[in-house]
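Q: What does the assembled structure look like for these inputs?
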Amino acid sequence: MSDVSRALQEPWPDLAVQREGVHFGIWVFLASEILFFSGLFLTYAVYRSFNPQAFAEAGRHAEIFYGTLNTGLLLTSSMTMAVALRASGARSRRITLTALALTVLLGLGFLFCKGLEYHDDLSKHLFPGPHFAIASPPAQLFWSLYWIMTGIHAIHMSGGIAAVVTVWVLFWRRTIPVQNSTMEGVAAYWHFVDSVWLVLYPLLYLVGRS
Amino acid sequence: MTDITLPFAPVQETGQASYLDEGHTLLSWLTTHDHKRIAILYAISITLAFFIASVAIALVRLELLEPNGLFLSSDAYNRLFTLHGIVMVWFFLVPSIPATMGNFLLPMMIGAHDVAFPRLNLLSWYLYVIGAIFTIYVIISGGVDTGWTFYPPFSTGFANGHVVTAAAGVFVVGFSSIATGVNFITTTHMLRAPGMTWFRLPLFVWSMYAVSLVMVLATPVLTMSLLLIIAERAFGLPIFDAAQGGDPLLFQHLFWFYSHPAVYIMILPAMGVVSEIFACFARRQVFGYAFMVYAMLSIAVIGFMVWGHHMFVAGQSELADLVFSFLTFIVAVPSAIKVFNWTATLYRGQISFEAPMLYALGFLGLFTIGGLTGLYLASIPIDIQAHDTYFVVAHFHFIMVGASVSAFMAGIHFWWPKVTGRLYHEFWAQFAAITMFLGFNMTFFPQFIMGWEGMPRRYHYYPAVFQIWHVLSTAGASVLAVAYIMPLIYLTWSLRSGERAGDNPWQATGLEWQTTSPPPKRNFERQPVVTEPPYMYHETGHPRSPDDSRPVKPQGNAS
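A:
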């Protein structure tokens, strides 16, 4: 157990309390994150209720292929992350490291697809401005929100990937032993960023296609 | 590495070195995880911010001596009052009490030896510094003229200052308050000492808990609204552009969803501080402890539902106006409960008038005036008349400067012996407290009168009929400046030459007073166990009699 005690940090009395504390803290932070994104969702709701036609038309220009592929990638990454958390709870080093590595790869795959999609969007003049592709002005609102929402989500993804890589390196180098009090926060954050995408996907890709 | 010797007192009484002796290098301060040292880093930073913002407004007040201006261009005038607002709100008032006294005292008051996430705590200070660097860049490169509110379409299309940089600075500093909030909530939940039940928490801890809730839930919305402004101005995404179907009013909703609760971020900690001080200097239990707790929590919750009262004249629906007006009246109820309870705490107390108590009494009066004039503005007909006048300016300065800064000073004096191990000079402190009260009233009372008579806020030129009030206000501001500079001098002096304080110079009951002054790195030599409710200055049901010389019952056995 002296090995495990290296994972214990100030000011926690023991690992169980530390795990509970990290869990609690990350949920308070996620509450803050939800309010952060809700500012965007409110803006989207208000503008879409003002301009339902224009939003439907603008939404049909979004690349549903990439959007759907990315949804699949993220859902799979949530699964591998859940496996990693369970495995770390069982102190299974090999499975934890493999599952975390898969999670990072799926996350990078998401960002890669997102990049390809951005490239297509730009070549189709879907960035608001003087040469914008769609005539109706409120379509520019939709596409402004598209860029901001997906951009902020991608920044969150990058942060998540960086956090997972950090934990992976700490486990790999045996700086701290594999256990779930460290994993708890990273996993909750990863699932949160995934679930934000599950809201963005219908708002941006499915609107106007029903 | 440079060796900087800090002018603080060493501790001899115990075997343990104080937190100040844990390292004397600059690096040891910049890499510390100790909540007490981070509190001091914050205290130095926000003091600098306070004086930057004060210089800006001093120039504005001088300029307003003459109806047609004295020495500033209108553009410079706009930039100065904007700078004053941005720096005072986000770099002084929001972090003021939570990041300094909250950081220092919250873990000690609940018997913990640090906050839940010490590295996050240090990160929050660095985020503050990064935000401050953005703001300093804005100042050096010529400023910004949008007012602290960043309203579009002016900020997104027409303002010619550094809007993006200024908004980015506020954006970053927002994360610093979120980090503080997350830390405080988790600390209060997870790290209370054995026996420290929720209803034995000192009211200051409750105020930190309530303010953390507001920080965590309101700040991200501000962050998002600023991000949208940046997206529109820097990348041309027409979010609030009416020509593309955007709605500038939506920004105001998002902005005030944060910025009204932000007012409670500024006042709730002040309420916590004075609750401690009234109990200690009246030698009384706080009257209606449970009501005080519920009042703070309901202020925090209802504070989220009143933002529309900033938009009565902005074209809201009449129904929204009525609802927001009603809720604004409602939020006055818990505030009034607190004022009555403080007054009842003083009743039959053995009051002594040391400097912290003078500041706290000043808080009580100024908060009451600021709160009651808030009720004027909550009623729609009066607000339509007084909107955007100096009446509003005077109202919120009574709360934010009168009440919050008084409480900040009260707390600084009250806990100074604990933080530094030294006593400040009592006479000068009392003199400064009274000067501040007089200077404050002289500055801001004339603003009520001229606002009521129709002087609009933020105007550079004004009709000569208002000049007398502006002259009075500027004169008061110079008295206020003296009152702010005095503590800097005598407190700095006391660091070297003040009398040794002893562990509990005020004979107060809280856990923080039962360890050494200054406290050791881990706050307590052994884990305290809490055995009493807070504020046991006398037996329940019997006020303390004047000749009662028994020592007060401490809240726990930390010593």
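The radius of gyration of chain A is 20 Å.
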